[in-house]
C-alpha cells in the first residue's frame, strides 16, 4: 500500500511541473514575430501535461531491493540545465463538451464550439490547437457562455471580427493555456478581465472602442511580449497602468488621441514606465503637439523608457527638436518622424543617437530646409528617407557631416 501511494505521488508531481516553451539552455521564452501584428504564431509550443498512461511504466521495486527515495509531493528533481516553471493551472482537468476545443484533434470545437461557430485547427506543433472564432457575430444575439473554459490544448484564440463589447471577469474561466489572443475589430470598451489569462504572450486589441486604460488592467500579465492597442479612442492612461508588463517588447498605441489630454492644460502626463524590456514603441497619429520627452527621461511623476530600439512618432504635430533633446535614447536603432510639422531640421538635432541606423523624415507638409550639421553625431546611420517633402528647397552641404563641432 505504501509503495502504491508513493507511485501516485510521483505521477502527480510529474504533471504539475511542466516546461512552458522555454529554451532549456537559457530559460527564455520563445520570441514573437514583431514585424507584423497580424501574424499568427503557429510555432508556439509548450509541453502539455502527459496522460496518466505515460507513467504506467513505473513499477514497484522488489521487496528485497534497497528502499527507494521518492521525491516529496511538493518538489521535483530538476536538471540544472533545464528551465522548469510551475504552471499550476495546466493540471489535467476533467474537460467536457463545455470546454472550447476539448480534446486534441477535435475540429468541431465541442458543443460550445459548435454553438459559437468556432473551429479548432491543429497547429504545426503536434497536439496543440488554434481556436478560430473570428467573424461569427458573437456578441450580437450569439453570446459567449459565462466563464468560458478554454481547453488545455489551445494556444491561439482568435475572436476577431465579432460584436464583443468587453472582456470582463466573467468572460473566461480557465484560459491559462492561451498564449495568443486576437480581439481586433470588435466593439470592446472594457478589458478588466484580461488578466485572468495569465500566460498570454501576444494580445491584439486594435480597432475597438477603448477610451481608458485603468491602473489594474494588465495585472498578472507579466509574460506578455506584444500588445497592440492601435485605432481605439484612448485618451487617458492611468499612472502605472503598464507597470506590470515587465516582459513587454512591443507596444502599439498608434491612432489614439493621446495628445488631446496633453493640450488641455492640466497636469496629465502619459506614463509608460515599468516596461523595462520595451524595444519597440509606436505612437504615430496620436496628436502629440511636441516631442514627448518626459517619456524617455522621466519627470518626477513618470518613469523613463530607455531600452527602446525602434520609435515611431509619424503623423503627429511635432515641429521642433532642440540640440541634444534625444540624448537619452542611446540604444535607439530606428526613428520615424515622418508627417510631422517641422519647418527646419536644426543643427545637431539628433545628437546622442549614437546607435541609430535608420531615420525617416518623409511627407512633412511644412519642411523647407535642412541646416548644417543637422545629422551630426549619427555615426551608425545607414538609411535616411526624406521623400515627398514638397516644400523642401534647401539642404546645407554640411548637413551630413557626422563629426560634432562645438
Overview of the structural elements:
Mean pLDDT is about 80; it is low at about 1-95. The chain has helices at about 1-15, 110-115, 260, 295; strands spanning about 15-20, 85, 100, 120, 130, 150, 155-160, 180, 200-205, 210-215, 225-230, 235, 250, 280, 310, 335, 345, 360, 370, 385, 395. The N and C termini lie far apart (about 85 Å). It has a twelve-stranded mixed sheet, with no helix packed on it. A three-stranded parallel sheet has the order 17-19-21, with no helix packed on it. It is elongated. About 5% of the residues lie in helices and about 15% in strands. The protein has about 400 residues and is mainly beta.
Q: What would the principal axes of the Cα set say about the shape?
A: elongated
Class based on secondary structure composition and strand pairing = mainly beta
Helix content: under 10%
SSE arrangement, N to C: HEEEHEEEEEEEEEEHEHEEEEEEE
Overall mean confidence score, pLDDT: 78
Helical element count?
Answer: 4
Distance between termini? 85 Å
Strand order of the largest sheet: 4-5-7-8-9-11-13-14-15-16-18-20
Radius of gyration: 26 Å
Give the low-confidence spans: 1-93
Beta content comes to: 5-15%
Question: Largest sheet, described in full?
Answer: 12 strands, mixed
How many strands appear in the DSSP assignment? 21
Amino acid at each position: 500500500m505504501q509503495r502504491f501511494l508513493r507511485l501516485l505521488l510521483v505521477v502527480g508531481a510529474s504533471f504539475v511541473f511542466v516546461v512552458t516553451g522555454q529554451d532549456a539552455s537559457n530559460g527564455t521564452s520563445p520570441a514573437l514575430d514583431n514585424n507584423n501584428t497580424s501574424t499568427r504564431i503557429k510555432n508556439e509550443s509548450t509541453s502539455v501535461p502527459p496522460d496518466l498512461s505515460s507513467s504506467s511504466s513505473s513499477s514497484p521495486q522488489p521487496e528485497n531491493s534497497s528502499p527507494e527515495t521518492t521525491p516529496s509531493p511538493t518538489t521535483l528533481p530538476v536538471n540544472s540545465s533545464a528551465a522548469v516553471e510551475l504552471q499550476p493551472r495546466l493540471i489535467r482537468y476533467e474537460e467536457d463538451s463545455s470546454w472550447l476545443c476539448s480534446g486534441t484533434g477535435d475540429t468541431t470545437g465541442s458543443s460550445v464550439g459548435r454553438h459559437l461557430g468556432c473551429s479548432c485547427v491543429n497547429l504545426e506543433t503536434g497536439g496543440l490547437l488554434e481556436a478560430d472564432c473570428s467573424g461569427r457575430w458573437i456578441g450580437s444575439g450569439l453570446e459567449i457562455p459565462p466563464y468560458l473554459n478554454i481547453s488545455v490544448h489551445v494556444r491561439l484564440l482568435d475572436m476577431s471580427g465579432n460584436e464583443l463589447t468587453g472582456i470582463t471577469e466573467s468572460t473566461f474561466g480557465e484560459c491559462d493555456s492561451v498564449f495568443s489572443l486576437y480581439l481586433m475589430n470588435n466593439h470592446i470598451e472594457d478589458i478588466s478581465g484580461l488578466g485572468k489569462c495569465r500566460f498570454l504572450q501576444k494580445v491584439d486589441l486594435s480597432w475597438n472602442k477603448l477610451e481608458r486604460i485603468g491602473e489594474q488592467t494588465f495585472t498578472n500579465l507579466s509574460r506578455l511580449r506584444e500588445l497592440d492597442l492601435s485605432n481605439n479612442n484612448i485618451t487617458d492612461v492611468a499612472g502605472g497602468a503598464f507597470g506590470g508588463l515587465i516582459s513587454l517588447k512591443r507596444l502599439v498605441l498608434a491612432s489614439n488621441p493621446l495628445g488631446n489630454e496633453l493640450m488641455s492644460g492640466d497636469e496629465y502626463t502619459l506614463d509608460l514606465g515599468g516596461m523595462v524590456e520595451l524595444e519597440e514603441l509606436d505612437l504615430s497619429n496620436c496628436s502629440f503637439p511636441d516631442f514627448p520627452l518626459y517619456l524617455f527621461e522621466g519627470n518626477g511623476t513618470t518613469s523613463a523608457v530607455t531600452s527602446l530600439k525602434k520609435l515611431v512618432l509619424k503623423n503627429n504635430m511635432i515641429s521642433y527638436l532642440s540640440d541634444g533633446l534625444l540624448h537619452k535614447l542611446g540604444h535607439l536603432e530606428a526613428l520615424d518622424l515622418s508627417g510631422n510639422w517641422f519647418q527646419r531640421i536644426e543643427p545637431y538635432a539628433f545628437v546622442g543617437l549614437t546607435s541609430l541606423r535608420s531615420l525617416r523624415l518623409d511627407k512633412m507638409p511644412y519642411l523647407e530646409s535642412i541646416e548644417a550639421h543637422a545629422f551630426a553625431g549619427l555615426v551608425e546611420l545607414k538609411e535616411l528617407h526624406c521623400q515627398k517633402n514638397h516644400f523642401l528647397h534647401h539642404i546645407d552641404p554640411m548637413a551630413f557631416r557626422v563629426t560634432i563641432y562645438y
